[in-house]
Amino acid sequence: MKMKKVLFLALFGSLIWSCSSLPKTTAADEIVRFKIIQINDVYEIDAINAGKNGGLARVAHIKDSVKNVEPNTFYFLAGDFLNPSLLGTIKVDNERLQGKQMIEVLNASGLDLVTFGNHEFDLKEADLQKRLNESNFKWTSANVLQITPEGNSPFQIKNQNTTGKVSDYEVFTVKNKTGNEIKFGVFGVTLPSNPVDYVFYGDVYDESVRAYDLASKEADFVLGLTHVSLEEDHEIARRIPTLPLIMGGHEHENMLLKEGHTVIAKADANVLTLFVHTLAYNLSTKELAIDSELVKVDDRVASSPKVQKVVDKWNAILEENLKTVVDNPNEVILTTTEALDGTDNGSRNRQTNLGEIITQSMNYAYGNWGDGVIFNGGGIRVDDVLEGDILSKDIFRVLPFGGSIYQVEMTGELLEEVLNFGVKAAGTGAYLQRHQLTQSPEGKWLVKNEIIDPKKVYHIVLNDYLMMGFDIPFLTPENKGVLKVSTPTAEETAYDIRKAIIHYIQNEM
Hints:
Layout: E1 6-9, E2 14-19, E3 31-39, H1 56-69, E4 73-77, H2 86-89, E5 91-92, E6 95-96, H3 100-109, E7 113-114, H4 125-134, E8 138-139, E9 144-148, E10 151-153, E11 156-158, E12 163-165, E13 169-175, E14 181-190, E15 199-201, H5 204-216, E16 221-227, H6 230-239, E17 245-248, E18 255-259, E19 262-266, E20 273-282, E21 288-296, H7 305-322, E22 332-341, H8 344-347, H9 353-364, E23 372-376, E24 385-391, H10 392-398, E25 405-411, H11 412-424, E26 432-435, E27 437-439, E28 445-447, E29 450-451, E30 457-463, H12 464-467, E31 482-486, H13 497-508
Parallel strand pairs: 3-4, 4-7, 7-8, 14-16, 16-17, 17-19, 23-30
Antiparallel strand pairs: 1-2, 2-21, 3-20, 5-6, 9-10, 9-15, 11-12, 13-14, 18-19, 20-21, 22-24, 23-26, 25-30, 25-31, 27-28, 28-29
Helix pairs in contact: 1-7, 3-7, 5-6, 9-13
């Protein structure tokens, strides 16, 4: 059941919707109240859509404003924040940032607790360890362990402030004005969608129940901080019917749902929105009431000067880097009326409108020389949708690693083999975004609506990563079906695919 109510929140000047059941008349000393600011799936430290939406400095201002009214305010993040991002690919002192900028901004914001998202494990083990050590906030996960020579164990955190580990759950203490106190627990779990050789995933459901039971021995009630699919959140709620609130992530779109007595809340990715949960615990009746308000984060919200200063530092580094490729990274190159799908789920499973723009741009860079164009869906790294005003910078967000565009002459036989491989690779980065290459209902491959002739030579435009055999092992210059490979010079538009896309959009869209 979805519950929706539009209200006006004077503090933020924003529209919210709410799930409310707070008590109206109870003696003040019998009620302990507190608030939780919830965000999830945050890849950008600054506002997006030409500065109109999001921005962690704005979130920090909201959090500070709420905390000024209610000192018992906590700030939680439900996974996915260290990767992917354009800034994360930038090198400083010959080392890629890999989320370092995000940790510094969240530290300045006063974040209290996070759980792992699947994208945290895009990082190499050593880089993730650095981010853990740099964190001033706590981490929790009941089902994620580090694989070590000594066996599976919780990730360790070592810094100047503490030496500890990622916990199954955390317990927080809240006191009201009369000195009465409660304790609440929070456990985290993560879906096993990103298998890597240094991470062990325990069963999401079994570990949720285990952590909930353990935390319940220390706390008056326990909440979930999850990064799993919505279906998995519903199942967790069914298996723990006394769980009052799941603060979730992963889906990228805001939602406020119920499963039995459990509220499931997910905000929009890149802090386009956040949730402010108000919880009130009745010491006499042992009842908990929850009011969940969705708050828009846009250019009507002020920014925390302290946090904005950190954001500006990293933005200056980014701007300097981008200007080596384009003169004006903040130029609006397109205003969309339809959201462009750059999500992992889209790019790796189906032909998307953003994939079409990328592949058309690749052909345009060579005067539409190609009979067809292919591009590996995994090269699209933004895992988000683009809408409204699109900046030059946003194209770098989509393709942070860049790369060149090649002209390849290959046989129809090899082309069919490549296309079949791409279809079978659905769900992975090897799935191919295509242009002028389609498949008939009978499974026949067509080039410009004509069935491929295995013996014919075709002009195919593709990116350098594909031609190196990384995603399709047999697609290399040495393959006998590859007759000629032409690469661009540094002066040509095709030398940097991002520049080629910007050029196409500015001239053809």
